[in-house]
Amino acid sequence: MKRTERRHLKENELQTFARQARESLELRRRETAVIIAVAGIVAVAAIGYYAWHQRVQAKAHTLLAEALAVRDARIGPAPAPGTPSIGGLSFATERERTQAAVTKFKAAADAYPSTDAGRYARYQEAAMYMALGNASQAIATYQQVVDRGGDSIYGQMARLGVAEAQARAGQYEQAITLFKEMSLRRDGPWPVDGILMQLGRAYLDAGKRNDAQQTFNRLVEEFPESPYSSDARRELENLKKT
User: Taking CA atoms, which of 70, 138, 159, 194 is between 20 and 30 Å from 128?
Assistant: First the structure.
C-alpha cells in the first residue's frame, strides 16, 4: 500500500473518530440538558408542594387554635353594665361552651382531615360529644380517628375512646373486647393498670362478677404501686360483701 493511501486512510479514521466523539459529546450534552431540566422541574414541584403543605398546616393549626380557645373559654355571666370587661371568650354554662367547641372542632377536622391538627381536632370533637353525654356520636367520631390514624398515637388513643364510649353506651361486650385487647399490649400508649381498671368496671356493669374479680386481682398483683390499686381493692371488697 502506498504511503499516500495509508495517510489517507489514517486521516479518514481520525475524521471518523472525531465525528463520533462530537456526536457522543452532543448526545451527552442533550442528555445532561434533559436531566437538568427534569431536576429543575422536580425541584420547583418540591418547593411548590412544600409551600402548599406549609400553608395547609398553618391554616389547620389556626382553626385548631380557635377551637381550643372556645374549649378553654371562661364560664360565667357577662360583666354587669358599667363594670370593666374581663375580655376574651366566655359562655354562660359549661354545656353551652362544649356545644360551641364541638362545632369548632368539627369544622377544623372537616376542613383538614389528613393533617395532624385535623386528626387531633376530630379526637377532641369526639371527647366533646362524650362530655355532652352523646356516647353513640362519640363512638362514630372516635372511629373516624381510628380509620385515619391507624397505629399512630391518635389512632391508638382513639381506640381507647371508642371502648370508653361503648361502655358508656351500654355496649359492654364490644367495650370488653377492646379493653381486653389493649390490656395485653405492653407496648401500647395506654397505662395497662388504667385499662385493667376500666375493664373490671365494664365487667361489673355487664354483670360478669367473676371476670371483674379476676381483673381487679390482676391489677393488684401486677401493679401494687399503681394509683388504681386502691380502687381495685375497694371493688374487690365490695364484691365480697354482695
Answer: 194
